[in-house]
Structures are given as structure tokens and as C-alpha cells.
């Protein structure tokens, strides 16, 4: 696997080990994108955030 794939796998493993911190990061990024785009892509950012949470097994993926 290439360097980018290796980095993505490492990030996913770290998120699995620290799901609360990963959730905070996902929330922060989602808010930032929504603010910068004037909520124009809110549905897409919600979907992306949920997918990110599912990728590392967060239990909060459907709670938001």
C-alpha cells in the first residue's frame, strides 16, 4: 500500500483507540466546513461525518 494508504490506516487505528477525541475532531471539522460554506453543504457534511465515525467504530454515528 502507498504512503497515503498507510497514513489513513494508522489514523483509523488511532481513532479506534481514542474514539472520544476522534469524535471531537470530526465535530470540529464538520462545524468549520459548515461555517465556511454557510451551511450550503450541511447534508453532505453530516453524511461524511457519520461515515468517518463508522470507519473507526464510534457509537455516536447515529446519535447526531
From TrEMBL:
Residues 1-64 are annotated as: Disordered. InterPro entries: Antitoxin_Rv0909/MT0933. Residues 9-53 have a biased composition (Basic and acidic residues). It comes from the Bacteria. This is Kanamycin biosynthetic protein. It comes from Streptomyces longwoodensis. The lineage of its organism: Bacteria, Bacillati, Actinomycetota, Actinomycetes, Kitasatosporales.
Amino acid at each position: 500500500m502507498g504512503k497515503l494508504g498507510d497514513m489513513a490506516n494508522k489514523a483509523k487505528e488511532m481513532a479506534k483507540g481514542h474514539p472520544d477525541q476522534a469524535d471531537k475532531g470530526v465535530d470540529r471539522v464538520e462545524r468549520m466546513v459548515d461555517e465556511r460554506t454557510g451551511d450550503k453543504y450541511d447534508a453532505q457534511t453530516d453524511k461524511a461525518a457519520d461515515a468517518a465515525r463508522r470507519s473507526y467504530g464510534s457509537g455516536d454515528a447515529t446519535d447526531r
